[in-house]
Amino acid sequence: MAGPESVNSTLLGAAAEHYVMCQLLRQGKVAALAPAGVPDADIIVSDRLGSALAAVQVKARRAIGSDNGWHMKAKHEEIVRDLLFYCFVDFGSGLADQPKCWVIPSAVVACVLTTSHRNWLGAPGKKGQPHKDGPMRRMLPDYSRHGMKDHGLGWLDGYLDAWGLIAPPVIQSS
Asked: Is the dihedral of CA 71, 77, 78, 79 positive or negative?
């Protein structure tokens, strides 16, 4: 049987989407996979009355690499919508690890990616050379190396399991 290290990115992404849907459904929110071709959204979320509607883009990672971050693209610097949220899922290093999820508004993600990339471009490379711009970005739990002191280790803590940001909590009737 294949171990978690052999799970391809498509399966990991699907697992993350289903994990996020599970968490939203457990809280009484209506959540469904967005149809193929919907730009910028993997999951559509509503309250049970249909009065609050939001979109969620899910990013997944396993504990590989040294920066503990998620792959993003330059386009994510421009995607800012009041009702769009990112769920950054970390599956850890093995199947025994419990997934962790940070729920972050798109405006925060866009600002952090823009600032960190601008700072990275302005800093010299390992041998003093200028960095070359490209399409990839990294969403990181610690940007202190990128000149963002207010986004050092722990800046994501307030977003951990912040499901209430997506839609107001459902009040259970007795």
From this structure: positive
**pTM for this prediction:** 0.88
25 vs 43: CA distance, rounded Å: 12
CATH number at residue 75: 3.40.1350.10
Q: Which domain holds residue 90?
A: 4-165
Q: Which of 74, 72, 90, 91 is nearest to 156 (CA)?
A: 90
**12-65, pLDDT tens digit by residue?**
999 999 999 999 999 889 999 999 889 899 999 998 888 778 999 999 998 877
The span from the CA of 171 to the CA of 13, in Å, is 31
